[in-house]
Amino acid sequence: MLFEKFDPLKGEMLQILDHKGIIINDKLEPKIAKEKLLKMYKTMVLGRVADEKALQFQRQGRMLTYAPNIGQEAAQVGPMAAAKDEDWLVLAFREFNAMLYKGVTLEQAFLYWYGNELGSKYDDNVKVLPINVPIGSQINHAAGLAYASKLQKKDEVAIVFIGDGGTSHGEFHEGVNFAATYDLPMIVIIQNNQYAISTPRHKVIKSKTLAQKAIAYDIFGIQVDGNDPLAMFVAVEEARKRAIKGDGPTIIEAVTYRIGPHTTSDNPKLYREDKEVEEWSKKDPIFRFKRYLIDKKYWTEKADEQLYEEHKQTVLETFKKVEETGEVPLEDIFKYTYEKMTSNLKEQMAYYQEFLDKKGENNGK
Amino acid sequence: MANKTILQAINEALDQAMEKDESIVVYGEDVGYEGGVFRTTAGLQKKYGEGRVFDTPIAEAAIVGSAVGMAINGLKPVVEMQFSGFSLPAYNQIVTHVARFRNRSRGKYHLPMVIRMPYGGGVKALEHHSESLETLYAHIPGLKLVIPSTPYDAKGLLIAAINDPDPVIFMEPKRIYRAFKQEVPDELYEVPLGKARIAKKGEDITIIAWGALVREVEKAMELVPNINAEIIDLRTISPIDQETIINSVKKTGRVLIVHEAVKSFGPAAEIISIINEKAFVYLEAAPRRLTGFDITVPLPKGENHFIIEPKQIAYEVKNIMAFKA
Ligand SMILES: Cc1ncc(C[n+]2csc(CCOP(=O)(O)OP(=O)(O)O)c2C)c(N)n1
């Protein structure tokens, strides 16, 4: 069994594709169809291009706060490629690529960061919960989804993301213990990107690995090279098989790095050296995946150039559409509070509308 | 004496209080090395060391719960919740322990501690970064809730909060952290808790506000120069300064309360009850409130509807002035 071979206490980390894009563990190389491999790769490139553009838009004052994913694409897309359509994706807030792979549209994903609640309304068939800002709380939602799947005998799992910093939160432990206790089909992906805003992971977490936290709950935990899409795929595929069989949850620690700032409001120069960023940039997930695909003759440099061009166009066009949405209509801020608007809310809205109408007339004076 | 922002005033208050009192410890998420996401604690770790100023795991219950233990055992913790929206994981500790220790130990233990948190909207922030949760804290017996609206008060109130023997929730109006400067004395001084400030004397109507809304009220009154309002900056929400409110209402007979916290069961409801109980016969018009709607604070593209603007305040004031019983 895969997980037994990688002991988190011994610092054994699953890696299949090294940072140069060479298979270093051919026994574990997954057999993924060409089409799927290309979907994975294209999603990662779209995520990268979208991130870089979003940072630009923000600097131009066209976008609000944004949390970039640069460097973490494989940790997000690998798991989604191993998931099935019927599986649930439960987000923290730095999973742009996972969202795209699972069927959230680029427009919706942008709309959220643009400041419009419609960006959390994904298409009906997309089983993704909205972005979850309160750190750690999403783990319990995933446990509940998984409980319902199990009770209703649905062959589906809940895949939930969290950051390294999030594993310190009480709710992380409550949720994992809950899922472990009832052998629930839940997979926790910890994106260990080494930082929680300015705080390095080792400064506030004593555990040698984050995967080892599984030991306390008597479930499997594995450390995986989070910049290796194949390793992430294999780990989640195995965890999924076990979850569906009734063997309970798994913790997968994706060891990766946040190349960009925490959000556009953050200045990483206050707390880390450029050299560290350069070192991690050499382990880039997209670079190594491209090499792998080219070596397999599934991809070419020329196709790659074209892909970046296409994605750039897509991102620019999509963002233009997003900008055209403008302000949220007044009624929308009220009408989703309850199934039906209460008389109290109707009154508050009408009163405000009256003010707006009169303001037009007499300028509020 | 120099001109300082609210942000600088808070930083200076923490710095000078720590210098004077070695039992003060300051901690929270990103508070130490970086000096806080808003930089309110900048420079403190360098000056006072990692023992007294430190970064914590993301675990608000641990931050506040540990402060209970520290306060009992000889320290004075001044902890930070990164945003008031993220104080909720600590709410259990705050309500079930922080607020109750003095009473349940019949005074054997008391908790000299401050829980600081930036709050409020109008900064185009992400979800859970714009809440005004005064009601949740003002409602709890055993807590004090303090909100400054000027740099001078920010420093003096924070120092008074730190020196107070009981736990204080200190909400910081982040919208005006850097909005303006004011002369702030260089030395340590206290602005007493539980005392409102009359920001402007007037005869026609009493307007009560706090935090970032005080300035909005002031701007509003410039729009209606013929109305001479008395503006009360409440400063301490709980325990409330009934005297200042009642004296003013007795004089003006008209009152408007402005807050960004949502309307139903909010602070304005409490203030109007006090006025009804103690100054009813002096009223010339029904007391009114202009508050956040009873909704979740909208994301930035809908936030304009939610944020209370000076014109709206002026509109309310005129309506109240026009009222004839
Ligand atoms: C309960 C709670 N406390 C504080 C915050 C503020 N906050 C937002 S992101 C963040 C750091 C998260 O770090 P990590 O979990 O490692 O995820 P990363 O940002 O690195 O993806 C903090 C403290 C929050 N969102 N929720």
Globally, the shape of chain B reads globular
Cα-based radius of gyration of chain B, to the nearest Å = 20 Å
In quaternary terms, these chains amount to: heterodimer
Low-confidence stretches of chain B: none
Mean pLDDT figure of chain A: 97
CATH class of the largest domain in chain A: Alpha Beta
**Morphology call of chain A:** globular
Number of helices of chain B: 12
Quick summary:
The complex is a heterodimer of chains A (365) and B (325). With 365 residues, chain A is an alpha/beta fold.
Which helices and strands appear, and what pairs or packs with what?
The complex is a heterodimer of chains A (365) and B (325).
Chain A lengths: L12 E2 L19 H26 L13 H10 L5 E3 L5 H7 L3 H9 L23 H14 L6 E6 L6 H12 L4 E7 L2 E2 L2 E2 H4 L15 E6 L3 H17 L4 E6 L18 H8 L3 H11 L5 H24 L5 H6 L7 H20 L3
Parallel strand pairs in A: 1-7, 2-3, 3-4, 4-8, 7-8
Antiparallel strand pairs in A: 5-6
Helix pairs in contact in A: 1-2, 1-3, 1-10, 1-11, 2-3, 2-8, 4-11, 5-6
Chain B lengths: L1 E3 L1 H15 L3 E5 L15 H9 E3 L4 H13 L3 E5 L10 H8 L2 H4 L9 E6 L14 H5 L5 E3 L4 H13 L4 E6 L8 E3 L12 E4 L4 E5 L3 H11 L5 E5 L2 E3 L3 H11 L2 E8 L4 H13 L8 E5 L7 H7 L3 H13 L3
Parallel strand pairs in B: 2-3, 2-4, 4-5, 5-7, 6-7, 10-11, 10-13, 13-14
Antiparallel strand pairs in B: 1-8, 6-12, 9-11
The structure holds thiamine diphosphate.
Structural features, described:
- The complex is a heterodimer of chains A (365) and B (325).
- Chain A has 365 residues and is an alpha/beta fold.
- Chain A folds into two domains: 327 residues, Rossmann fold (3-Layer(aba) Sandwich), CATH 3.40.50.970; 37 residues.
- In chain A, 46% of the residues lie in helices and 9% in strands.
- In chain A, the strands form two sheets. In chain A, strands 1-7-8-4-3-2 form a six-stranded parallel sheet, with helices on both faces. In chain A, strands 5-6 form a two-stranded antiparallel ribbon.
- Chain A is globular, with a radius of gyration of 22 Å.
- Chain B is of the alpha/beta class and 325 residues long.
- Chain B has two domains: 183 residues, Rossmann fold; 126 residues, Rossmann fold (3-Layer(aba) Sandwich).
- Helix content of chain B is 38%, strand content 20%.
- In chain B, the strands form three sheets. In chain B, strands 3-2-4-5-7-6-12 form a seven-stranded mixed sheet, with helices on both faces.
- In chain B, helix 1 runs parallel beside helix 7 and helix 9 crosses helix 10.
- The longest helix of chain B is centred in the first third of the chain and has 15 residues.
- Chain B is globular and about 60 Å long.
- In chain B, 57% of the residues are buried.
- The interface between A and B is large, with 49 and 43 residues.
- The complex binds thiamine diphosphate (TPP).
- Thiamine diphosphate (TPP) sits at the interface of chains A and B.
